[in-house]
Amino acid sequence: MNKDQNTKEADNAMMTEHCPDCHCAKDQFHRPGCDLERCAYCGLQYLCCDHAEQVPDDDRMRFNGSFPDQEACEELGLFAKLVPGQGWVACNRDEPGAFPDLNTLYATCQWNRQEKRWQRRRG
Ligand SMILES: [Zn+2]
Ligand SMILES: [Zn+2]
């Protein structure tokens, strides 16, 4: 009956106290070479983007217990599951095997550099 409550709990389950890759604590910087650090300038993987090692610490994103691209998928309801013979197919987040649909996120959204979050592309 209290659907909002359930949604909240599910969201909390995605939060984690330490980065799963570099094990830094919440509100700390990721350690150098962490796969999961996101670039504050373009929102992509900091290791591989054009800004690697060029973002001053003042601008870098600290680990806040979740990841901006996964949060955006939650917010926009972008989920996909792997269907044999069909590849990744859009689905609801409650469906078994649902993963945040990052491909669709990157294709349909742009990184807001000021707010450090993904938002839908205009027009
Ligand atoms: Zn990390
Ligand atoms: Zn970048």
Q: Which H/E pattern describes the elements?
A: HHEEEHEE
Helices, by number, come to 3
Shape: globular
Total domain modules: 2
Give every kind of bound small molecule, once each.
zinc ion
Structural category: alpha+beta
Strand order of the largest sheet: 2-1-3
Largest sheet: 3 strands, antiparallel
- The low-confidence runs, each spanning 5 or more residues with pLDDT under 50, are 2-13
Distance from first to last alpha carbon: 38 Å
- Beta content comes to 15-25%
Helix content: 10-25%
Rg, rounded, reads 16 Å
| Tally of strands | 5
Mean model confidence by pLDDT = 89
Explained architecture:
This protein is of the alpha+beta class. It has two domains: 18-65, no CATH class; 67-123, no CATH class. The protein has three helices and five strands, in the order ααβββαββ. A three-stranded antiparallel sheet has the order 2-1-3. The radius of gyration is 16 Å and the shape is globular. One zinc ion binds next to loops.
In short, what is this structure?
This protein has helices spanning 3-14, 68-76, 102-108; strands at 79-83, 87-91, 99-100, 109-112, 117-120. With 123 residues, it is of the alpha+beta class.
Helices and strands in order:
Blueprint: H1 3-14, H2 68-76, E1 79-83, E2 87-91, E3 99-100, H3 102-108, E4 109-112, E5 117-120
Antiparallel strand pairs: 1-2, 1-3, 4-5
The site of one zinc ion has 9 residues, from loops.
Keywords, please?
two-stranded antiparallel ribbon; alpha+beta; disordered N terminus; 5 strands; 123 residues; three-stranded antiparallel β-sheet
